[in-house]
Structure of Olfactory receptor:
Amino acid sequence: MVTEFILLGLSSNPEMQLILFMVFLPIYLLTLAGNILIMVTIVHDRHLHTPMYFFLTNLSFIDVCHTSVTVPKMLSDFLSAEKTISFGGCVAQMFFLHLFTCTEIFLLTVMAYDRYVAICNPMHYLTVMNHKVCLLLTGAVWLGGTVHSLALTSMTIKLPYCGPREIDNFFCDVPPVIRLACTNTYIIKVLIISNSGLISVVCFMVLVGSYGVILVSLRNRFSEGRRKALSTCAAHLTVVTLFLGHCIFIYSRPSTSFSEDKVVSVFFTAITPLLNPIIYTLRNEDMKRALSKLMGRKVEVNSRNK
């Protein structure tokens, strides 16, 4: 029985691996810094203690966890000759990868509902999206992600692995791992498409539909309110397209390997979590004001200490 797998990674060229390390290390550090800064800013600014920013804090937290599941291992493999991962480590990667991925998909759907209520029913927004409802929705989001991840991971680890050990990627995911199983995996492949693929496609359709309703309702709004609402919706749609595009590409087709898989996976695990703080801060006036206030407060504290 196989006790460890070999990750083929992005390149077998040592010089290219060093270049990739120098490229992705700053990206990872910026991802952590950007998302943590968003969380700290929202916690410290009382004006941002609203349902929208409560969900945004959860999104930033998920992005930090999501990128930390795969990128640190990828960075260490760039500097090592043997790119191996234990069977237990591979299972852990698959579990947490699908936990945070599915949780983020559900959270993006909840955020679209939050924007729908805020824009289409503003008079009852704080009543509908009260603190208790936000906590219940967040709990349901995490519960759904956990159930989904447990289902996929348990199906994968029950398969026998007795021969091939090479995973043609830089992290463990269900589709490339089950290709190494020493048994017929047709049923599991169908379950993956009907589970992960269906979740991605349905959530994407719901999100696009909800934003379509929002855009229709904005036709009769004043220009300033309409501009702010459109800016928020555009930010959400950008994140949704980038994130769900990967899930639909990977999990909504038969388990065959394409040359584009690694590029899409890199964008999904390393680039998208970095773009989220950029999209939500540069396009959001409230966040920019809160960041400026937080930075000004820190400068004032430092000057007093001196």
